[in-house]
Design brief:
Helix content is about 45%, strand content about 15%. By secondary structure, the chain is an alpha+beta fold.
């Protein structure tokens, strides 16, 4: 077996690192909460938008898109290398869900008019998209959603509610799932829409997470009129398009690499910090836990590489993508828990004081990691996919 990268791939990795050294502030990776998009005021938001413009100018926002739609048609492994380096350096890879989810979905299912209208804006970093899927009573069981879209001449009228909508307060556009046939079985009466966030009747309310950041939002729709040409694919077939969108979300290496960076910082901290006359790494329990996690992160990285390898061969890594997502998200939680044990009570100190170990990054990471086994599909859902589609087991 050959696990190495080609000379071209290694050159691309070096190019990304050089770009990040030039374009990110020197202390970017050391800031606690640096990945909290939408936080930090207008100055920070403007920096993030301009950084996206620079990625777009290099073609990296749409690295894997076909050339005819503004992409570089890069190989799957080149995309893995890009995501790996961006995630490791905590760079803002994209704002919203446009490049990795909306664009590929429109390429597959959109009309020519939808492609001409939306793809250039995504590729040029001119638009920010959010995802209106989950509802208060429809999360893991997404097909139970109750937001309605009723046909009215050349429009659909939308009423309902969405929740956990990241960056909705900053977004220009939204991909929206709504029920268009109330009498059909729940998976067969859903349609997929492209919604302008400036449409009258939309209310955005903030939701603050455990780290007290405002990234999530609730959306409320009251008599929101959406033109018929905003429907993606066939009426009442939106569930199957949404499934493709979610597959794009689950197949990345980001979850593993984000944890690798924290693990490296934790190893460095333990090697430099003394307790009772000796460094933390001289404690056998600490040494063994850090070593165990190092092994697990290498296994997680290989699971992600397998997904990319299958995609490169034209295969659909359904169960394999779920394995990678499940393992990566639960591994980050194991790392967060181990980090708190190693740092002790001081690990709970939030950023903003000199007393916080690792500048409070571990505290923020611990709180953030609690959501990773819910976002993009719960661990229970992932195990169900692995059992059913991977092992061929019957439903429980």
């Amino acid at each position: 077996m050959e696990f190495g990268f080609t000379p071209e791939e290694e050159a691309f990795r070096r190019e990304i690192r050089a770009f990040l050294r030039a374009e990110l502030p020197p202390d970017w990776g050391q800031q606690a909460g640096v990945g909290a998009l939408g936080e930090g005021g207008e100055t920070r938001w403007e920096f993030l938008r301009q950084f996206q413009k620079k990625l777009a100018a290099k073609g990296w926002l749409t690295l894997g898109w076909p050339a005819e739609h503004g992409g570089l048609a890069a190989t799957h492994m080149m995309q893995v290398i890009y995501n790996e380096e961006m995630s490791y350096h905590r760079a803002p890879t994209q704002l919203g869900v446009g490049p990795d989810r909306v664009g590929p979905t429109i390429i597959l299912y959109g009309t020519d008019d939808q492609k001409q209208k939306h793809l250039p804006a995504i590729a040029n970093a001119d638009s920010v998209w959010c995802q209106g899927f989950s509802e208060p009573g429809a999360g893991s069981d997404l097909a139970s959603l109750q937001t309605r879209a009723v046909a009215d001449g050349d429009f659909f009228v939308i009423d309902g509610q969405k929740i956990w909508t990241s960056l909705a307060h900053k977004a220009d556009m939204c991909i929206l799932l709504a029920r268009t046939d109330q009498d059909a079985p729940k998976h067969k009466g859903i349609s997929y829409f492209l919604l302008d966030m400036n449409t009258p009747g939309i209310e955005v309310r903030p939701l603050y997470d455990l780290t007290n950041r405002h990234t999530f939002n609730q959306l409320f729709f009251e008599n929101v009129r959406v033109p018929r040409n905003c429907l993606v694919g066939d009426l009442n077939r939106g569930w199957y398009i949404a499934a493709a969108t979610l597959d794009f979300e689950r197949s990345g290496i980001n979850r593993v690499v984000a944890g690798i960076r924290i693990h490296e910082e934790l190893v460095e901290y333990a090697a430099q910090t003394r307790h009772n006359g000796r460094t933390l790494v001289e404690n056998g329990t600490v040494r063994h836990k850090l070593a165990e996690l190092a092994i697990e992160f290498q296994a997680g990285r290989l699971l992600s590489y397998r997904v990319a390898s299958m995609q490169a061969r034209g295969q659909i890594p359904n169960a394999e993508a779920s394995m990678s997502k499940l393992y990566g998200s639960e591994l980050q939680q194991r790392l967060a828990g181990a980090g708190m044990e190693i740092l002790g009570m001081a690990g709970q100190i939030a950023p903003g004081t000199n007393w916080a170990p690792m500048a409070g990054r571990l505290e923020q990471y611990y709180l953030f990691a609690s959501a990773l086994t819910v976002a993009a599909g719960t661990s229970e859902i992932m195990r169900g996919i692995i059992a059913g589609r991977g092992l061929g087991l019957p439903r429980g």
